[in-house]
Structure formats: C-alpha cells, structure tokens
Amino acid sequence: MSVPQKSDSVAVFGLGRSGLALLSHFEREGIRAVAYDSNPSAKAALAAAGLSHIPFYSGEDYRLMPKADILYRSPALRPDHPALADGLRRGALLSDEISLFCALCPATLLAVTGSDGKSTTASLVAEALRLSGKRVFLGGNIGVSLLPYLPDMRAGDFAVLELSSFQLTTATLSAEGGVITNLSENHLNWHKDMVEYAAAKERLFGLCRHMTVKAGVFPQREALRFSLDGDTPLRLEGKTLYDGDSPLFEEGDMRLRGRFHMENFLAAAGVTRAFVPRRLFLPLARGFSGLPHRLEPVATRQGVAFYNSSIDTSPMRTLATLSALSERGERAVVLLGGADKGLSLAPLAEGLPSLVEGAVLFGQSREALARALRGRLPLALAESLKDAIPLALSLAEGRAEAVVLSPAFTAFDAFRDYAERGEVFKRAVLALPE
User: Fold this and answer.
1) Domain span at residue 426?
2) Could you tell me the pTM of the whole model?
3) How far apart are CA 185 and CA 195, in angstroms?
C-alpha cells in the first residue's frame, strides 16, 4: 500500500482508538491531516489527545472536507459509508491503521482472527514467542495500536496482530503466519450477511504465507489444521495435546479450563511452529492464567462463586463458557443480555437448558431472550446489569453454586464496551455482603 509522504494530505474517519492513533502518528510525521466522525461529540476526543488543532468534521459536513490523497477508515465504519464514498469519488485511496502499520513494520508479522478466542490465542502466541527469547509486540483488535511502537521495532522482533472482521475487510499486509480460530455467526449488525462476514475472515489466506485453521473452516483452502475431535496434525489424543508426533502437554497441565482453551493452544502451536520449540508449551500451559473478562473468578458471596465473562458477546461464545463450567461440575446461573447484533437465539434456546440451572435476563435484549427461553429453564428479568446480580443470587439459592456473567450480546446498550461492563459487574459483586 502507499505510505503517505509529507507532501500528502490524509483524512481519518472515526475517532476511536484506531483513528486517534493514526492522527497521532501523522502529527509525529508532519503529515497534514483532517478528522471526521459521525458523532459531533467525538471532537472532545481530539482535545483529550492533544490534537484539538486538527480540523474536525461531523455528520453531513464530510461534503465540506478538503480533498485528501488517502482516506483512513476506522474499523467501526463500513467501507461503503457515505463519507468515505464521497472521498473516493474525488480520487482518494482507501486505507486503514493496520495496513499502514504493516507497511512500516520491520518485525515478523503473525495475524490471528476468528469468531471467538482470538484475543486469548493472540496472547498465547505472544507469550510463546517471549518464552523462546523473542521480543514481541502484541496489538490490533486486542485494544492496543502498535503505531506508537514503530520507532522501537527492529528486524528480528515479532508483531502479533489480533484482527477483527471489520479490520480484515480492507486490511493489506504480508504476514509470515496466520490463524483462524473458528467461524460462527457473528457481527451481523455490521456485516450485510454471513457470506460477507466469512469473506472478511477468508481474506487472511491471501495475506499470510502459512495458515493454521480449525478443521472444517474454509475446507477448500490449504492450511495446517487443528481439532480436538479429528485426525489432524494439531490434535488431542486421550488427554495429551500433540503437534504432529510431538506431545505438547497433558490436558491436566493447563491452568485454564475448558475445551475451547485447548483449541486456542493448538492454534497458537500451529502458527509458531517455525519459531517456538515444542517443549515450551508445557510451561506456557502451566503458567498462562488467561485474560480479564474471560471466565474470570471475581469472588464468593453467600456461598456462591461469581465469574466475569463479559467478553462473551455471541451465543456460541456463551455456550462455550458455560460448557467449561459444566465440565468442572459447577452448576451455574447465567446473566444474559445487552445490545442485539442480529444473531439467532436458537443456539441459546437449545443449549442452555442442559448447561445452567437458570438465567437472569437484563438490558435491551431481555424481552427477546425471554420469548426464546421461556418454558425451557427458570428465568428472571431485570432492567439493568446491577439489578440482575441480586436476582441471580436469589435464583442460585438451592439450585447452583455459581453465577456467571456471560451475556451473549454486546455491551453497547449501557456501556462503552465489554470491559467496562465487566468492571461494573466486578465492583457490584465485591460490594455484596459476604
């Protein structure tokens, strides 16, 4: 892709984390930039980042923006957004933060995507590389822009990128290895349909030299395959995880619990094959405790263990989390709800009754959830997440020894993101009487 020069002008669309990182980079490089966000209040983000001098446009004012040589799309904006379409008609090129970073990055690139588990897998990849003595930078959709770290990067370093379907829709990069952890219905409030969503994920094949992919995902594509149930190079045999003929570790060695975490380890083993000795996966399994908001133990209150899995923003992810608790023999009440993103509730209706003792439904989606789940398991409805917590404690009495926040929906009806939702949940639980 074209890297902007000082003689170029650029426009950044969307003032989230990605957009602000781009503007800060252009400021350091002395490149003329303007900014756009559909929300007028986003101008405050420019001021907070020390960039209030950058011209800002909002709403329909994109028609007044000066002509730019390159347009940089933040992940939240679809490529066909009218503001971008207007600039493209005037002869600009379209790019994004990930493409710019990869064009400038001297380090070896490894890319991770998937419907679920990509943050944990990317973190495992980074930690495995560190255990083998490599210097590693981890960023992307996981919440960190790597643009500010470019001056510190050298050949011989590694950059591990977690990539969402939003980013992959336009990203241009050349990575040594890529991973697709899995593929299931997701983000259909942004993508037109499942075909478009899958196509965004499939683009990774054309951006990486070597691919590691879960068995059954894009079966027509050549890739190193992993599975817990099939005859694949990366697999589970009995209670031992293998890469080819090399044992990695025993299932009981893993500090994390849940079959889906074993898949994450296999995915990480595949993409690091050329760089990390297999013997290092045993200490990795024993030492890696997971990321926040992913089946995170919070506290025990009134004899009930509370878990925060606010990252679970799809039905399939929620079912995987609840299966992990069920495998451990913990009977649970689940907190479900949030903002809808166009996904079918049928998997929850079918899967929940065998996994939980009851559910408390909250937020924007509570009525739709109630219609899908009524008659299948004990239910309670709450206006908000805070209201749902004491109801869950009451519902658990005599039924379950655990309450887990595993919402199956995004947090945008009431929170900035899943992390804020998880922190609110943890504070509310810790405030409960013991």
Assistant:
1) 296-430
2) 0.91
3) 10
